[in-house]
Amino acid sequence: MGVEARLVAGMDGSADSADAAAWAADEAVLRRAQNLCLIRVIRGPAEEAEASAALAELAGRLRSRHPVLDISVRIPHGNPAEELVSASGDAQLTVVGPRRRSSLSAVLLGSVSTKVATHAHGPVVVVRGRPTAGPVVVGLDNSPQSRLALGFALDAAHRYGTGLVAVRVWPDVGYAPSVPTLNFEAIALREEAQRELSDGLHGRTEQYPDVAVRRSTPRGHPVAELVDVARDARLLVVGHRGRGGFAGLMLGSVAAGVLHHASCPVAVLRGGVAEEEEG
């Protein structure tokens, strides 16, 4: 309740970040947010004039499209990921553009967008493309983080006037490459996934009677299956188990994987904040 109706969008001067700002403005209007704050973090005073002019021009374009939306700008100095994570503390939603894929080091160390998505104090959407049709897809595994993701996904589907696809991926757990899962084992795993998906949805979807829910329990790797199901989605929603400082980003996490491979906007709902504060 302490979070005001405010969205934050991280800018870096690229066309991708401008698209993210446009997506954020559309989302702010749908959410009836009070403010959209465009933030571009710079290294020092030498960059301030260019950043200020670019943000003013972008803000002007967005105001012309959404005259009722209050749009503000900020140009702090510092580390982009750290500044955006800090700004996420009083935001209803933080929006950033996609990660760059230009170098191996960027993949290994994690881009600004990935760091923000997996360490922010609230929901983050990484925008790739601006689809205006298609369902909302949510990945579920009965963890506390996926329960947060389900609530966010149902609310988004209701707001967009579209359906929801709830996905519970079950793995192929062969004993060795030469010993595949037996048929009766595969049937048991699939039925377990279906039961867990039903349990996760129980009592939640009834709150959104206007949202048609389709259930999907594919077999495979969570990242590959979620990306495939979401290929025509308007939004893909996943949870992430937070682990503290930036070094805590697990390179093999589902959130990091779908952020790198999905072709649609991805919302990340991060858990573990209370655990970190206690530990």
From TrEMBL:
Recorded protein name is UspA domain-containing protein
Protein origin, superkingdom: Bacteria
UspA domain boundaries: 6-128, 135-270
Q: Which InterPro entries match?
A: Rossmann-like_a/b/a_fold, Universal_stress_UspA, UspA
Give the species this sequence originates from: Saccharopolyspora erythraea
Protein keywords = ATP-binding, Nucleotide-binding
Write out the similarity annotation: Belongs to the universal stress protein A family.
**Gene3D superfamilies annotated for this entry?**
HUPs
Does the keyword Nucleotide-binding belong to this entry?
Answer: yes
